[in-house]
Amino acid sequence: MKYRILVAGGAGYIGSHMADFLKKEGYDVVVLDNLSTGHREAVLDAEFVEGDLGDKNLLAQLFKQHQFDAVMHFAAFTQVGESVNHPAKYYHNNVCNTLNLLDAMLQAKVKNFIFSSSAAIFGNPKYTLIDVEHPQNPINPYGKTKLMVEQILDDYDRAYGLKSVCLRYFNAAGADPDGRIGELREAETHLIPLVLQAASGRKNNIKIFGRDYDTKDGTCVRDYIHVTDLCDAHLLALQNLLKNSISKKYNLGNGNGFSVQEVIDVAKQVTDKQIKVVDAPRRAGDPAILIADMALAKQELNWQPKYADLATIIKHAWQWESNLTQRGFGNE
Description:
Layout: E1 4-8, H1 13-24, E2 28-33, E3 47-50, H2 56-65, E4 70-73, H3 80-85, H4 87-107, E5 112-118, E6 129-130, H5 141-160, E7 163-169, E8 171-173, H6 191-200, E9 206-209, E10 221-222, E11 224-226, H7 227-244, E12 248-252, E13 258-259, H8 260-271, E14 277-280, E15 289-292, H9 295-301, H10 310-326
Parallel strand pairs: 1-2, 1-4, 2-3, 4-5, 5-7, 6-15, 7-12, 8-11, 9-14, 10-15
Antiparallel strand pairs: 10-13
C-alpha cells in the first residue's frame, strides 16, 4: 500500500528535507506552505499547494481532494526572540492555525499526526541529559506554543482518537548530503550557518556570547542533530504510528554536546578558511549545556543517528553555503 502524506510547512528547512525523504521512500507527498519563510524551489518532487493553515476552506478542499493517511506539521514560526517581541503572531500561527489543521483532519477522519515540537518546551534544564520526562517549563512564547500543542494533542487523543507523535528537536543542523537543499533564511539565527557565513564572507564575523560558562572551554554546549537524521526519525515514527496507532513523545538529538568554540574550530578545518570571532557578553536565558537523552527513540523506534560527527554535519552545511555564495545570496 502506498501511503499519502500531507507535509504542512514542507517548503521550509526541515519540512523540505522531510518531503524529499518521503518521496525517496516511495510515499505520495503533498506539500502545503504559504511561503512566508519557506521557498518554492526547496520542494523538489512533491506536489505543491500554496496556502495557509488559517484558510479553513482551503484545508477542507485539500482533505476532500486527497485521502491522506497522515499529516506531518512543520508550519510553525520558530524564532525565539521574535516570539518574545511578537507573541500574538506566534500564538495565532503556532496554536490557532494548528487547531484548524487538526479540525480539518477530524472532519476528514484522518487520525495520524506527526508534530514538530521543540526542546524549548523544557525551559532551563534541571539536569544535563534531557529525557522525555524532564519538567516542562518553557521560558518564551515559542516554547509555550509548542507545549500547548502537545497538550492539545493529548486531549484530542482522549476525546477523538487522533493519534500523534511529538518529536522534540534540539539543534537541527546540516543539509541534504547531495547539496540540493539546506537552511535558507532571510534572518539567520542558528550557529552553524552563521559560522559558515563568516567563513564564506557573507558575514563579517561570528559572535561568541560569553566565555565564562561552566563548560570545558567556557562557551555554551549544544546538541546538533543532522537534518537527515531528523527525517529518518520522523519516518520511523510515522511507520510506527501507522502500524500501532499509539501516541508517543520522543526527544531527538545527537546525544553529544559540542561547544560554540568547537563548532568554530571544526568549521575552520572543514572550510580551510579564516573565521573572525568577536567576543560578546552572555545573552539572557542561555543555559550552559543542552543535550538530548534520546534513549527512548533509540529503543522504541530503533533509531540511530548516521551523521553524528560534527565535521560531517558542518561539511554538508558548507556544501550548501558554498552553493548560496555562488548564487550571490544575501551578502552582508
